[in-house]
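Section 5.1 Outputs to date
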Amino acid sequence: MEPILTALYILIGILAGTAINIAVEWRKAKQHDARLIRGCIRELKLNIDRVELNLAWLDDYRKAVATDSPSLFLKWFSLTTMLSTVTNQLLNSGVLYDRLTFEEMHKLQGFFSAHSQAAEQRINDQAAKQRDNFNKSLAGQEIAFWETRWREQRDNLNAVVSALKKSTIT
């Protein structure tokens, strides 16, 4: 009877050790995901700050247009300097798909697709053309377009950040 009990104790020890190992690894994975989510939130907040900077520059551009002197505006709107390393890592691992709704994922994807080299070139070409060939009405329309677009993107990123913050609480 004693060899059977010994074997049973060994089996229970192996099962307990395996359960503890699984629990520890699960906890480590959750902590790693939470750390990445915090990094993603910081990254998105830096992107929001970059959008805010572009909006401030757009206001400077509006003032230059209002005074009929767009040639004085010499700043470069940088849309391709947005950070996305951690966000892309979380997308590739599927963590963001678990944390965000379809609508929030759509907002995030829309932000990154709107900040392309082509969009950056477009707005800066528009500003350059206004310096060379000023059309106040067209410049006002272009400013209104970019302002609306960037405010919407900023608001979308803020919504995603809020959703990610809520997802780390639960």
